[in-house]
Hints:
The protein is 44% helix and 9% strand. The mean pLDDT is 96. By secondary structure, the chain is an alpha/beta fold. Helix 8 links the parallel strand 1 (95-96) and strand 2 (124-127). The chain contains 15 helices and 7 strands.
Amino acid sequence: MDPIDALLEIASLLERERASRYRAKAFRKAAATLKALPADVVNDPTRLRAAEGIGESTFGVIRQAQSGAVPEYLTDLRGEVAPERTSALRAKLRGDLHAHTEWSDGTTPIEVMVDAARALGHEYLAITDHSPRLRVARGLSAERLREQMPLVRKASAGTLTVLAGIEVDILDDGALDQDAALLTELDIVVASVHSKLRMPSREMTRRMVAAVSQPHVNVLGHCTGRLVQGERGTRPPSQFDAHAVFDACAEHGVAVEINSRPERQDPPDELIAIAMDAGCLFSIDSDAHAPGQLSLLDYGAERAEKAGVPAERVVTTWGLDRLKAWAE
Length: 328
């Protein structure tokens, strides 16, 4: 087995399982190191082990792959990671409108996320790093976002179009955490609540309705903010008048995100039903923070299909031209 392929597959599987980001990054770093090393170093075990970026585990994987075997680490991981889930709706998804890079709290450069999306057969991928208020996630100031936008669009190649976007914080009064003129230049705007998640229902309802009523917003991200499992623990959903919020989404053509991360499962099934009755559009997104997490779309598609969401109401089943016309 090619050692670089083995290292990258391990990284992707660790990312899909939301394992420690440091473990996954170690395998990606080792792959990059190995690719850059001259052949005489790669074939010399002593010099290879001494190379910066090659640790004990990654060295073992490389050596086993060089011997012609599938590394034990990879074999074990393949057996532990649940296989991707199949559904009719997943097969109809053409892209993803919510993904992060190392510009905010993602783990890899834009190009690595784009390569992973292309490998999955995506027609489009929106890069939506965080806005400035989310400092813990290195949210992008207006200056950094302006710097990023041309790099994102430049990453488009072949059959994959990369869309410039943002996951913008919904502020306490429903305003958006980025310069309004700059938001008009983006292809996709995902608006999400990340702070004061326990705000009283009436105030939270007013906050969210104000946000989705703004013309810049395309998608309402992980609307309840809940966590149902995972290393971050659990968190109850925010309380708001779902009928009022989803009626506003339907009125303004804002898609309700079905967030594919298993630790979120957001919105809950009962809120998907309310959004359906309100006539909302939906966007099935990965909210990926690493390349291996882009495949989490299978979880979101499975939930949406079980909830009876028609494919034609899922904007991420649309072709690029239709998607861009809706977003504009």
